[in-house]
Task: structure prediction
Amino acid sequence: TNRVAAERSLRRALRRLRPPESACIFSQNPSRWQLVFGMKTRYKATETLSLSMTPQKPIGRPPHDRKLGLCGVSLTMARLPRDDMKAFRCVRDELEPLVIKSGYLDDAPFVWVTIAIRFGVKNEQEPHYQRINRKYGDLPLAIEVDTHELLGASLESMTRVLRRAVLIALVHAGHKYQRPVQPLEALLQSIQSDFVSSQSNVA
Result:
């Protein structure tokens, strides 16, 4: 079978890495670091060979045409406004065309992006990453927002908070995967400046 053939090839590769019985690659009394170096070299060679022999599955496709998916996860016992689903839809419908038009997904290792908004106690400035889902083709991200900003918030205020968090996640992931993020970054900067000015007016 293929598995038996792969194991046989791996054993042959290891035998080629092993020196002959009469040869000695170190001195008669090898030091500890020499032994460690030899073990690390053999381990890396084995790992590289195993990865090269493992076939990579192609990236799958989602059962829909969405390019941006949003969801919410509550980390506190606070009760959010009833318009949270409307706010999610507003942010998705606003930013999804911008993601497509900017070429964010062109030649990317993922087909679409999913972002989980964690309603917690702080505003994070970078998202949490998970492995690209090879079955559905999405890049899973998660970012936390401060729930205190959403208590009793209107639909407009909640949309503003979610929009800022989603843009932070998209821009950060775009830099990581070398995606074009100029339109998203420009929108984020304008939102950040408006947020700072509103906070100063309140103070």
Q: What stands out?
A: The mean pLDDT is 82. The beta strands are 68-74, 112-120, 128-129, 138-146. The CA atoms of residues 18 and 184 lie 54 Å apart.
